[in-house]
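User: Could you write out the 3D structure of this protein bound to thiamine diphosphate? I've included everything you need below.
Assistant: Certainly. Input first, then the structure.
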Amino acid sequence: MSALDATGEQLSVREAIRTALREELARDDTVFLMGQDEEDGGSFEVTAGLYEEFGRDRVRDTPISETAQIGSGVGAAATGLRPVVNVSYSDFIAICFEPLMNQAAKMQYMFAGATEMPLTVRAIEGAGFNAAAQHSSTVHTLVSHLPGIKAVAPATPRGSKGLMKTAVRSNDPVVFFEHKNIYERTGPVPEDEDFTVPIGEAAVLREGADVTVVATQQLVGEALSVAEDRTDADVEVIDPQSLSPLDTDTIAESVRKTGRLVVADESPLSYGLHAEVATRVVENEFYSLDVPIQRVGVPDTPIPFSPPLEDEVLPTAEEIDLAVDRLV
Amino acid sequence: MATLDMTDPSDQRQALRRMLLIREFERAVRDNFADGEIPGFVHLYIGQEAVAVGACSALADDDYVTSTHRGHGHCLAKGMDERTLMAELYGRSDGYCSGKGGSMHAADLDEGMLGAQPIVGAGVPLATGAGLTAQLRDRDWVGLSFFGDGAFAEGQVHESINLAATWDLPAIYVVENNLYSEGMTYEKQHNVEDLADSAAAYGIPGVVVDGMDVEAVYDAVAEARERAARGDGPTLIEAKTYRYRGHYEGDPQPYRTQEEIDEWRENRDAIDTFATRLREAGVLDEGEREELQSAVEADVEAAVEYARDAPFPDPEEAYDDVFVEPNPDVEYFRERLGRTGGADR
Ligand SMILES: Cc1ncc(C[n+]2csc(CCOP(=O)(O)OP(=O)(O)O)c2C)c(N)n1
């Protein structure tokens, strides 16, 4: 599906997520938010104003207890509510991996469908703030690896609103990843309260004939600027939006046209989204590829604190550009 | 930093100096962070100096301490050098972690500082582990963990205290109850008046001390240390204290009033109280506090100069120490990304 013709009011990613949550809180009284400092607007002010609007039953502060936040979210979801749990920095998911991996992901399956799991977890990831190793991780590939969990990581305001609404309405557990460096990014968002983006649908953000760049989150912006600057190659930019499940059809269709693929994602390069996208293309479109696939990401290191060190390990527009160089 | 004898006048002056050093260090961090010289986030310890100094002054050099996101005070009280610490905050290669850690991860194992720790509650099991090493390897050290009232809501804190209690490990748990966790009040996070009451659940002593009184903290930790060293197991100490600055620098603090902050600052300030007590006891001469103050100001100024002049790390150092052995995937990916020679494929 193409998002090129998107129209609507201009919202930031932050406002788009907030609008989605506000609309879903208003639409369905089983929806509620919980997290640390959530009554004060939550991490990065994403939920600002919602406590004033909906009150304590619907927008709740928790102690600093990530395991209880997700675990009780699982229990509430299995018994009739639609929790949206904010764990703030995605690094903290490490603390609550048990209720995520063993409960949220497996309960429907183990109980042979006797329960549903309408749980949404919000997690903020990404680097670029000199926040050092324990506040800068991109963990979406870890979570995407869990059968039974859906993982989304939109890059645009449109995708953010549409996917958040779908996540809240979904009867499956969804982890919604927000990149802390793109909250201010603005773009058009349909105002229709029933506008949603299905989980498992990529967005073609720029059409091009020569090279496909599949980029996520912050790197979507970098990929688009590389595409604009290149005169020798017509670059198509795809935001997968959903990481698991992944829209392999849209990517394959693009590679059939271009024969060239770059995958740019901020997670460590081994065993992640890069590998999954590349493998799907190799499995299904091997004979469409003219040249080997290129990956851009973090060279399997934690994210260091000092500015020159953080700059060194983070993927950049220049690296996407270089990857394109190697293909054309 | 050597153990102090808090009945000895010169050691008492030394304790006051350590508190002044922490406050002055934090003031410099506040100003230079505001000026954009220090990257990342900083969380200041101003107001809580009596806890770090009281506790660490009762410890031996070999004892291990784990800290929090609000860790500069613990680092300095444990004996870390203010210049090297400042260089780390500035992201320089001469810092304690060669610029990899910054404020939230400063560590110095030689001084027994097992790390500032921004994952709330995560330092507590590490102190338990230091106690476990002492027990199994027959070492004299104890493991002490500093953590906040907010951290007390994390599961791993309780698992770790229970483990140490069950195994009689030489460990000390110091919860600094400063009434706030980010913007959440104490009452919103806990249903008990004193966190130290939880000690009953583990069958260990639970002690409440005035965290604005350096001698009270010292006494409680000294006693806990004796108990730990005897093989009688851990103690939970709750120090009631207060942070003067926001949760992080730049925090607008809508959750509390200036009057409340002023009340603590003016009537309960740990440094003023201690200095007055020492003057009244004749330990501190007229003008001596000012002399100590000038001395720490000079030290901190030198630390800032040192940090400013120190070089940034070479970007390639980002890949050092992922493992003890070089990480082969790092080299593979760097070459593929075109960051090293011969990348043209
Ligand atoms: C596991 C985890 N959850 C949440 C956070 C975000 N966070 C950082 S400091 C903090 C408050 C900690 O409060 P407290 O333990 O009382 O320490 P204080 O800030 O009062 O010194 C929170 C919620 C974190 N760093 N780690």
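Residues A 36, 64, 66, 88, 92, 95; B 68-70, 118-120, 148-151, 178, 180-182, 247 surround thiamine diphosphate (CB under 6 Å).
User: Perfect, thank you.
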